[in-house]
Design a protein that fits this description.
mainly alpha; 2 domains; 12 helices; about 0% strand
């Protein structure tokens, strides 16, 4: 959705009420514009995330504080720099150096999860493989997050974070049980529950 032509029409009539409505909808419009930018970039690759994943990525980028024009500046160059569609982490890595740091509002949990994710995944692969992780993620999604919409990468982060919280137990049921504890912590808004193990892990492994 491109809001500029409509805003120009509103301005030409000096419609203060409609202008206020546009202002109030600005966050929603920004998120939609980011989603459209990602869709446009995806069309330039043979393989790309589906629409539901793209929508979630747009939401993630918007909540991290990125503006539509900032995403557009970077996405415009990606098809010329990369042979494959970037993952969300790769996209963030390309975005951050091109933006002033004070414009990127990354909450601590998101930052820690993304920094620890590759390291935790590599640690998991020392005792199991991708097939086992996929099966664990499927069980976790069904039993812990049945109503949630999330990308494969975000689901893996949730599973691996709870694997960390149950001290790398080799029993899949322990991760599911920990996931249920995480749901309870979310309900009581216990931020420290989600942060303390990740903080310690990131510090220990210099992530």
């Amino acid at each position: 959705m491109n809001v500029k032509p409509y805003k120009g029409f509103v301005d030409s009539w000096s419609d203060a009420v409609s202008n206020q409505r546009l202002s109030e909808r600005a966050p929603e419009v920004q998120e939609i514009e980011i989603e459209n930018i990602l869709k446009d970039m995806a069309m330039r690759f043979e393989r790309a995330p589906g629409q539901s994943v793209t929508k979630l990525w747009a939401k993630d980028l918007f909540e991290l504080g990125f503006k539509a024009y900032q995403v557009a500046q970077v996405c415009r160059q990606i098809p010329f720099k990369m042979d494959k569609h970037p993952t969300l982490n790769e996209l963030l890595a390309l975005l951050r150096p091109n933006l002033p740091q004070d414009e990127v509002k990354v909450d601590e949990l998101t930052d820690l999860s993304r920094r620890c994710y590759p390291h935790l995944k590599a640690k998991f692969f020392k005792i199991a493989d991708q097939d086992i992780l996929d099966k664990l993620c499927a069980a976790y999604k069904k039993l812990v997050l049945p109503e949630a919409e999330c990308s494969k990468e975000l689901l893996e982060q949730c599973v691996l974070n709870d694997w960390l919280r149950c001290y790398f137990d080799k029993q899949p049921q322990k991760v599911i049980d920990q996931g249920r504890l995480s749901n309870e912590a979310e309900l009581r808004k216990d931020k420290e529950y989600f942060l303390r193990n990740l903080r310690a892990y990131a510090k220990e492994n210099k992530l």
